[in-house]
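so i finally got all the pieces together for this one. its two components total, 437 residues if u count the protein bits. some of the lines might not be protein, just check the labels. i wanna see the whole assembly predicted at once instead of chain by chain like last time, that was a mess tbh
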Amino acid sequence: MGCAGEPGSTFTCCHPALSPEAQVAMTLREVCGLATEEIARAFLTTPPTVAQRIVRAKKKIRDARIPYEVPSEKELPDRLDAVLRVVYLVFNEGYSASSGGSLTRHDLSGEAIRLGRLLIELLPEPEAIGLLALMLLHDSRRAARTSPTGDLILLEDQDRSLWNRGQITEGVSLVERALSSRRVGPYSVQAAIAAVHAQAASPTATDWTRVVGLYDLLFQADPSPVVELNRAVAVAMRDGPLAGLTLIDAILVRGDLGNYHLAHAAHADLCRRLGRTAEARASYERALGLTQQEPERRFLNRRLGELPGKTG
Amino acid sequence: MKYLLFCCHEEKSLDTMSKSECDALMDETSAYCEALRKSGHLIAAEPLEPVQMAMTVRVRNGKVSVTDGPFAETKEQIGGFFLISARDLNEAIQVASKFPSARLGSLEVRPVTELRGSSRPAATF
């Protein structure tokens, strides 16, 4: 299967008459061949919600007689936002498949990168360039982020000699090109963050002050709780685990990421570093209850097993 | 993935149908089932006897109690089921929407739970 459709068919699924959610769901299902259930997991929502979106979108396409064709050059920039979001979601589904035994589904990531390259040929907008950079920089770590047995390896524990230098060089130069436009958007900033990591020789040699600063910038462009969570993790690296934990507690208290397993995993990790074993255990267990991905489950179980034995 | 489609309809509405109407409905359903079997979508399909024929069994405190019928408050009853295989929920919806029962009453589409990491055969009971 894979993304046989070229950017043209993606643009069709991203027709402005459809809601943004429907555009993304349609592209993933019709262009990239994902199942409704996989799309639901990528969106942190339920399969019936996604199914309804697709049913309504198809009805709309039929009723409004929306043609399956490439939009005119004049319309393209307006439709770019939805297309970039879709391409990135496709990449993420491939980079971190939401279920099943294998952490990555290389074909989907490769297809997303290919779509990204075609897009910047068609429309060299800064954010399209930023997105391609971001995907390349993430993908450069592919070989290092899972062990031969398929287990998850965190950024700080990765063997950096396994990182793909070619992809990093290309990604970094694309980041510079995107940032020089002075119309900086969320993809370019995320790519800039990935570039800081890619260029650091070790976790401790990472410029965490620049990473936190870039997350501040990102939060202005995209004030989402997931961005806040990532910023909190960077703050923990810059200022120590307690500073990060305070921020994550505040996010969880608001109830925004209660069902997001990575929020609980990050919470658990910082508690572990602070020696707060009981809280770490509870949060790892909460995270385990929320992810279906086998490598992530094994990672969480491993961390649980490494905690000091129960006291009291 | 597997989905179980429950046919829900008012049994009373079936009672008021003429024999030829009933036969036409059955023929249309059989033809559609045959097409679904050929395309690999249909795993099993059975109609059910009316709720008057049903019994309900419970075990409480080790004692078996048996009562007549479900006597559900709902107006619609389950009149049959189809077990299908579809690529995803949207394909299951598409398959369900073409059953004549969907015009008559409604079809509930329920994903079948796939037991994680289980190597045991699907049907152990």
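Residues 98-104 of chain A have pLDDT under 50 and may be disordered.
Residues 76-95 of chain A form the longest helix (20 residues).
anyway lmk what u think
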